[in-house]
Design a protein that fits this description.
Elements: H1 12-23, H2 32-48, E1 52-56, E2 65-69, E3 79-85, E4 101-103, E5 106-108, H3 112-131, E6 140-145, H4 156-164, E7 166-170, E8 181-185, E9 187-196, H5 212-224, E10 231-240, E11 250-259, H6 262-273, E12 277-279, E13 282-292, H7 299-314, E14 321-324, H8 330-335, E15 340-341, E16 348-349, E17 357-359, H9 361-376
Parallel strand pairs: 3-6, 3-7, 7-15, 8-14
Antiparallel strand pairs: 1-2, 2-6, 4-5, 5-17, 9-11, 9-13, 10-11, 12-13, 16-17
Helix pairs in contact: 1-3, 3-9
Length: 378
């Protein structure tokens, strides 16, 4: 099917105006009520575009998810799944120090790059096609989830069930710095760590105690020094103690491990789990939580990429590709063997920081690319 998205009237100003309420709706993963408010905004915009909205109640303490399907004569056949998350890592209040603002071709705000900008431009692409009277060859469904930033513990089964009904999966996670897309992702595992010591009065009986915090500090250094080219280890969250005048009885932490190959991650997981036990009279416990499988591109994913590359070229865009660290729900769909193209979202930088921003023009450029894919995939 021949299609030229350059004729679609994508307008940067109107896109930024539509995206702003999404960015200013703070939606950290661990605040399900806030995430649900964000889902309300997205559901309304999707419904106004003509989609049929299904609200899937959250579970395990997380927010709801949204499935939005657009009318299509072949709606019972496998189609295109556009998949993204609307939760962010930014806690409530970050908007005070990272407000929505524009500066020299960039636009800033919490979650604007990861990944509200990509989700919004995908919706805009669908709206543009509908307004232009362009029928997509395949039915199109959007799935917005609520817990991707913590590994998708509650929505993984939903993601996989929806992907199993799809012919293609498009993931508008942030694009690469060189303007490229993602055709594979590394394997990732998360862990909860806990040390249990012996309490005592820190002033009067310090030597009687065994500090859980001190032992956790030792373990953190040990774990992070396990990092190699094959498998990395990092600690991102630590909590311990209650009173400064008490030797800490417990300390907890969260660890992340990542590897390019599944067998390297499996070996890393085994090494970390082997640290369970007592040391220095302090117990150490490791529990593996969620895992993202390695996604290695197969021939069908690469065929999907080649089609996207050709479409991008027609729009005057280069579209390199790579496998990438940092997980996404594309790990699951790619590992299932469903042709998946990730990193189709905005171009930007500062993800997960107080400098998170997008290159404004990428809303239009990537919107046209997404429209081209939706209009031609068959």
């Amino acid at each position: 099917m021949s299609f030229d998205a350059r004729g679609l009237p994508f307008d940067l100003e109107s896109m930024l105006a539509g995206l702003r309420p999404w960015v200013e709706c703070e939606s950290p993963t661990y605040s399900p009520a806030r995430v649900n408010t964000m889902m309300d905004l997205a559901a309304r915009d999707l419904a106004m575009a003509g989609a049929r909205i299904e609200r899937i109640p959250g579970r395990m303490g997380f927010g709801d998810c949204i499935r939005a399907s657009f009318p299509h004569p072949r709606e019972r056949e496998p189609g295109v799944l556009v998949m993204g998350h609307l939760d962010t890592v930014h806690p409530v209040g970050v908007l005070d120090v990272l407000p929505f603002r524009r500066d020299d071709g960039r636009c800033y705000g919490p979650g604007i790059c990861d990944m509200k900008g990509g989700n919004f431009l995908s919706l805009e692409a669908m709206r543009q096609l509908i307004r232009a009277g362009v029928a997509t060859p395949l039915p199109v469904t959007f799935l917005f989830t609520s817990d991707e930033e913590v590994g998708t513990p509650s929505a993984r089964d939903l993601v996989e069930a929806e992907a199993a009904r799809a012919k293609y999966v498009l993931v508008p996670e942030p694009g690469r710095a060189d303007g490229g897309v993602v055709t594979g992702r590394y394997a990732i595992a998360r862990f909860n760590l806990e040390t249990t010591g012996k309490p005592s009065h820190a002033g009067a009986r310090l030597a009687d105690g065994r500090s859980a915090i001190r032992e956790m500090a030792r373990r953190i250094v040990e774990i992070e020094e396990m990092t190699s080219e094959d498998c990395t280890f990092s600690i991102g969250v630590v909590n311990g103690g209650q009173w400064v005048n008490c030797v800490a009885t417990t300390c907890s932490a969260q660890a992340l491990s990542m590897a390019k190959r599944q067998h390297d991650l499996d070996a890393g997981v085994a090494r970390l789990l082997a640290l369970n036990g007592m040391r220095n009279d302090v117990g150490f416990k490791v529990d593996q939580t969620v895992t993202r499988p390695v996604w290695e591109p197969d021939a069908r994913t690469m065929a999907l990429y080649e089609r996207a590359k050709s479409l991008a070229k027609s729009l005057g865009l280069d579209l390199p590709h790579e496998s990438a660290g940092g997980g996404s729900d594309g790990n699951f769909t790619g590992a299932m063997g469903i042709p998946t193209l990730d990193g189709l979202g905005v171009i930007g930088a500062g993800i997960h920081t107080l400098n998170e921003h997008i290159v404004e023009q990428s809303l239009v450029d990537r919107g046209r690319l997404m429209a081209s894919l939706l209009a031609t995939l068959d």
